[in-house]
Amino acid sequence: MKTTTPQCALCAIPVEERICCTKDGRGPAFCPTLNKRAVIDRSLSILNDPQVREFARLASVQEAECYAQRDRKPYVVHPVKPRLQEIMEFARKMGFQRLGLAFCEGLKEEAAATVHILNNHGFDTASVMCKVGGTPKEVLGIREEEKILIGEEETMCNPIAQAEVLNDAGTELNILLGLCVGHDSLFIRHARAYTTVFAVKDRVLGHNPLALIYTRNSYYARFMEKQPQEAGNSG
């Protein structure tokens, strides 16, 4: 691994001593704050676009407003807002009225509840399910043995169509709810409006994928063992 490859996740320097958090801080050999100034400066130049700058500014404002008693010294972290509330508040800050919800068929009840909440808070919503279009999986070249239900008719998930439907609906902010790995990437790639995530798909862990990380030293310890190069599925 090159020493200039950014590896912030592996930084062992205490947060209060890191160069990214304090001007007199320090960083390891792989620190992008120290090694990637040209890249960072280029990213900052994008903020010269007033719309991007305002979006970023209000996102930072929203972040701070999710905590209470911020003037308390010493400060004790006190979060007060669930994510859906954050999404609605941020949408209002940006003046977004028309929200899009792209959701998985397996979370249709959660999607209906989400739309009801958004509508009750004055938003104009458009929602589209992953199976929109009713296109058979054979269009993708999927073989029978590659289907979930072998030998059955199976409609493909179509995140590109979900994105295009919401593009056509003129949504100003899109919300992802439970799209599969890869499908979420295609949606984000093809959506015109900014996209945020409400919840992600994790079939085993009740859509709480961090449960694996939190139990990596117990129930999911097998993931911490070094493995040979994997191909295909692993259990």
Task: Please explain how this structure is put together.
The radius of gyration is 21 Å and the shape is globular. Helix 3 runs antiparallel to helix 4 and helix 6 packs parallel to helix 7. Among the domains are: 39 residues, no CATH class; 119 residues, Rossmann fold (3-Layer(aba) Sandwich). It has 8 helices and 4 strands. The mean pLDDT is 95. Strand 3, helix 7 and strand 4 form a beta-alpha-beta unit. A 4-stranded parallel beta sheet has the order 2-1-3-4, sandwiched between helices. The chain is α/β, with parallel strands linked by helices and 235 residues long.
Briefly, what is this?
The chain is an alpha/beta fold and 235 residues long. It contains 8 helices and 4 strands, in the order H-H-H-H-E-H-E-H-E-H-E-H.
Quickly list its features.
235 residues, Rossmann fold, 4 strands, 33% helix, globular
Helix content: 25-40%
What is the H/E order? HHHHEHEHEHEH
Q: Which CATH top level class of one domain fits?
A: Alpha Beta
Class inferred from helices and paired strands = alpha/beta
Q: What is the number of helices?
A: 8
Strands across the major sheet, in which order? 2-1-3-4
The named CATH superfamily of one domain: Diphthamide synthesis DPH1/DPH2 domain 1
> What Rg, in angstroms, do the CA atoms define?
21 Å
CATH topology of one domain: Rossmann fold
Round the mean pLDDT to the nearest integer and report it: 95
